[in-house]
Structure formats: structure tokens, C-alpha cells
Amino acid sequence: GCDNVCSFCRVRLARGPSQSLGRQQVLERLLDLEAAGYNEAVLTGINLHSWREGPSRLPELLAFLLENTDHIALRISSSEIDGFNEAYAKVLSSPRIRPHFHLSVQSGSDNVLKRMRRRYTRSAVYQAVELLHSVKERPFIACDIITGFPGESEDDFNQTLSLCTELNFGWIHEIG
């Protein structure tokens, strides 16, 4: 599920509110994978940054998993821009966190982001990408982009195009 109320998405209506596996349950699954000989696991969800258990958030979960497993590497499947902060950067710097990231960017225009009811701005996208480059050497960064959003002007589109060009995403999943 999802707790966001983005104007273009119906996940929250179809699946309901976010639900998080408990940290112990996630750890047990990773330990089973390690015991079976796997070297990497992908943490996946609609919005991994909505993970919570009491006061703990995604950075604390990742740190807990790294501290309590031996060697398994972690790949982060989907990151919301508003989840990027210093605590997240610190845990991402671990060599066991793969340098592969998929960001839910959606648009490079503040006007469109506001109409989408996203909780971040164009500048926050730049900051998130800078953060990833500061903690990982040559990270692969992919993103989602929605083009042709209702009311999107040519200027809005060009702002998105310039953001994608300047940030040089490794892959863009375009919806439009």
C-alpha cells in the first residue's frame, strides 16, 4: 500500500495504507537467503521510505540488517525523493549497499510536481542525486518520469528534460 495522495496514482485506493514487515521478519528472510548461498537481496515495495516500526525508519532498518547479517548485499528498489537525508546517506555508504538506485522523480517542474501532489521540489531531486554521488562511486541511477501530465506546458516539459539531461540518469522509465 501507500500513504501518499499523489493525484495520478491509485495504489492507495487499490491496496490501502502502507504496511511494513517487522525488522525481525525482514532479518529472518535475509538470513535464510544467506544460508541458501545467495549473495544479494533486493528490498522492494511501493515506497521503501514509508517503512516504519515504532520510531525506526528505513535508515535504521538498513543499519540493523547490515549489522545482523554476514555478507549479503542489499539493493534498494524504489526511493522517494523526500526520504533522502543524512541518516540515509550514512547507511547507503556501506559497501554492502549496491550502487544501484531507482528514484521516483516523476517531473522536473515544480509546477507539475505541485499538481501531482508530490512532497518535494526540483531542487530536492538534484540534492538526492548529489547525495548518492557523495556516498557511491559512479552509482547507477534510474528514475520514473511522467510526461504529458494534465496541464503540463512546454516550459514544464523542458524543465523535466533539462533535469534528466543534467543529472544524466542511467535509465528513465517514461510514462506518458
Describe the structure.
The structure is a single chain. The protein has 176 residues and is α/β, with parallel strands linked by helices. The protein is 40% helix and 16% strand. Strand 3, helix 4 and strand 4 form a beta-alpha-beta unit. The chain is globular, with a radius of gyration of 17 Å. It starts with 10 loop residues before the first helix and ends with a strand. The model has no long low-confidence stretch (mean pLDDT 91).
Number of β-strand runs:
6
Beta-strand percentage? 15-25%
Alpha-carbon distance between the two ends:
23 Å
What strand line-up does the widest sheet have? Answer: 3-4-5-6
Q: What integer value in Å does the Rg equal? A: 17 Å
Question: Describe the biggest sheet?
Answer: 4 strands, parallel
How many DSSP H or I helices?
7
Helices and strands, in N-to-C order?
HHEHEEHEHHEHE
Helix content: 25-40%
Chain-averaged pLDDT: 91
- Based on secondary structure, the structural category is alpha/beta
Secondary structure topology:
Elements: H1 11-15, H2 23-35, E1 40-43, H3 58-67, E2 73-76, E3 79-80, H4 86-92, E4 100-106, H5 110-116, H6 122-135, E5 140-146, H7 154-167, E6 171-175
Parallel strand pairs: 1-2, 3-4, 4-5, 5-6
